[in-house]
Give the backbone structure.
Amino acid sequence: MMSQEQNDLLTRVGRGTDAGSVLRLYWQPAALADELMTARPVVPVRLLGEDLVLFRDLEGKLGLIDRHCPHRGADMLYGRLEDGGLRCAFHGWNFDRSGQCIEQPGEPEGSQMHKNIRIRSYPVVEKNGIVFAYMGPGDPPPFPALDCFAAPDTHVFAFKGLWECNWLQAMEVGIDPAHASFLHRFLQDEDPADSYGKQFRDKAGETDIPMTRLLREYPRPDIKVEETDYGMRLISLRHMEDGRTHVRVTNQIFPETICIPMSNEMTITQWHVPVDDETCYWYSMFTSFGRPVDKTLMREQRLKEHRLPDYAPIKNRANNYGYNPDEQRDVTYTGMGLDINVHDQWAVESMGRIQDRTEEHLGRTDVGIMKYRRMLRAAIDNVKNGQIEALPMRGDAETTKAIRGPISIDAIAQTEGWEESWIQSDGARRSGCAWDATL
Ligand code: FES
Ligand SMILES: [Fe+2]
């Protein structure tokens, strides 16, 4: 349990807040590149409680600027994309992608006033299907060479989805390895051959055991957590009756990202990005170590479950997440269908917009959550003391750029000597990879 004050400290993200100041020191997903694939590439972005407009100018370069015009506050989303910038539709002030006002067509001829006018703007970079923004002070940090960034575009698919809750409870489901045995339980196993693009439906490691069965039959993982240069690594051990152990390696990448195995071929790197205090988006990069990603199929699978343009899930609180008691009895643990995203969405939204952590009771399986909260509190203290370089991946730039991986894998090993097994399985996968995935 924590105090209300502590809960506010860790969850609130607006400008000037404690957690918000930590999040602003890292690149944040602002949009999918797909969203800008329109005749008029201008989209609204609400990020960390700030209302912004993302646009691609006529040179093809991206700009992320304040939603409100600094003249008299009109909405820049309805601006005209022309003449090297985005031009406010009220009096025609034109702003380039850096936020500089380059023209005020209604001011007297020869006026130089525009030189002193800037609209708030943030640097943006596009990486493998996601547009990232840096909203913090000073220079942005370099990107680490995570697999999702190191892989070529052909091997990465990006998507996102809206969840109606605070970012922290959304992220915390990703560092809670025990829930997969319950929330995502399938009472029957499907053929793993039909598992493409889906999580927890492949075979476990090199065996013929479906992941669904393994998770169902071994619900008490032994969870080990260690701090790393990028955040933390979680190793969940499920000791099986036959003397073997299932080793699942997942990661928290500071501050709000997880990296987990999806299948033997793919991993998911997933950001839990605050829209504001009470809403967040998950942004995922699905990275393949095997074949190029079938983006058409993966997009189709996910578009069936989401509504555009806001990527809101079609199953949601308003329709009870599709809850069906017959299905809950016979097919799934939740009765909410086979898409595990819906299960996670229900779990985190059903806590309330901001989970009341003054009422919670953490158990042994919550060891990752406890450690993460300590890391976030330490980061908040360091920011307050001006020691930004003490935060993960905010120290020496070369060290940050050299961070690779992280290893995210399901492996099966003899219980004796499991410690080496996941490193070996991962090494084998990387050595056979078509792109340079060496660590
Ligand atoms: S309010 Fe935007 S130009 Fe006047
Ligand atoms: Fe989950």
Remarks:
- The chain has two domains: 29-133, 145-431.
- Residues 176 and 267 are 17 Å apart (CA to CA).
- The chain has a mean pLDDT of 95.
